[in-house]
């Protein structure tokens, strides 16, 4: 089928693009086979649920999105690893969890799913432009999560944490980039996750007023252990991350 016959919808300010998780399960771009982003509905689908989506919508054009890990830094964090960022907004991540990966985007047509580069001469300019906007668009789940938590720190400058000598256990666990889930027994939450900076454990955050969010297992872990700082999974970048102090009950930065 020619690309000229493939329908697509250019995202705008009111659009919602779901590209970080399958609409029907918890698969992500890290999962085997990645995700297929529908060019019309802007829904992300794993390979297992792609057929279902095509059957329901008859849309055949997709952006295939996979996130591939290319290296992992596993050097033990030193005492100086937790340094302030230039704007005193977040704590830098420990070296054990410094991951590098690349995003791979390719245009495909169902059912052959042969990958085409967006720079391919056979891809129409307007279609390539639409795909580029989808690639740059922020994921809808991420936007919702941020909006649900703004009451925690919006408009207030982050205070430097009073915890200046954070204890960290030896040989913390390696964090999986493929499947992350709350480690509390019986909890299946895979979003709103927080990694404790003392022992590397991952638990879900607090439940929001509308019933979304987590089940509060991260703060329960703090209550049992006294380990005070946790970093929001998914916010870790080369420049830092969002860090919450349970001891101080607020988002914090490091001087």
UniProtKB/TrEMBL annotation:
GO terms assigned for molecular function: cysteine-type deubiquitinase activity; zinc ion binding
Species of origin: Soboliphyme baturini
Organism lineage string: Eukaryota, Metazoa, Ecdysozoa, Nematoda, Enoplea
Reactions it catalyzes: Thiol-dependent hydrolysis of ester, thioester, amide, peptide and isopeptide bonds formed by the C-terminal Gly of ubiquitin (a 76-residue protein attached to proteins as an intracellular targeting signal)
Domain spans labelled UBP-type: 161-255
Keywords, in A-Z order: Hydrolase, Metal-binding, Protease, Repeat, Thiol protease, Ubl conjugation pathway, Zinc, Zinc-finger
Family of this protein: Belongs to the peptidase C19 family.
A GO biological-process term: proteolysis
Keyword check for Protease: yes
InterPro entries membership: UBP13_Znf-UBP_var, Znf_RING/FYVE/PHD, Znf_UBP
Top-level taxon in the UniProt lineage: Eukaryota
EC number: 3.4.19.12
Class of enzymatic activity (EC top level): hydrolase
Name recorded for this polypeptide: ubiquitinyl hydrolase 1
């Amino acid at each position: 089928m020619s690309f000229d016959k493939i329908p697509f919808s250019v995202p705008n300010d009111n659009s919602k693009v779901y590209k970080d998780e399958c609409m029907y399960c918890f698969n992500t771009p890290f999962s085997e086979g990645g995700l297929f982003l529908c060019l019309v509905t802007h829904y992300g689908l794993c390979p297992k649920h792609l057929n279902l989506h095509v059957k329901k919508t008859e849309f055949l054009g997709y952006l295939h999105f996979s996130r591939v890990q290319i290296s992992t830094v596993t050097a033990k964090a030193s005492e100086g690893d937790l340094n302030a960022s230039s704007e005193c907004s977040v704590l830098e991540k420990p070296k054990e969890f410094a991951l590098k990966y690349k995003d791979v985007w390719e245009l495909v047509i169902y059912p052959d799913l042969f990958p085409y580069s967006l720079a391919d001469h056979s891809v129409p300019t307007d279609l390539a432009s639409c795909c580029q906007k989808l690639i740059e668009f922020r994921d809808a789940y991420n936007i919702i999560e941020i909006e649900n938590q703004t009451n925690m720190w919006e408009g207030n400058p982050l205070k430097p944490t009073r915890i200046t000598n954070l204890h960290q256990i030896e040989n913390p666990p390696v964090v999986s980039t493929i499947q992350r889930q709350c480690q509390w027994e019986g909890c299946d939450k895979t979003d709103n996750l927080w990694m404790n900076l003392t022992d590397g454990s991952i638990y879900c955050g607090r439940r929001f007023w509308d019933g979304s969010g987590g089940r509060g297992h991260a703060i329960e872990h703090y209550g049992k252990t006294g380990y005070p700082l946790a970093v929001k999974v998914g916010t870790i970048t080369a420049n830092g991350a969002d860090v919450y102090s349970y001891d101080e009950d607020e988002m914090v930065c490091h001087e």
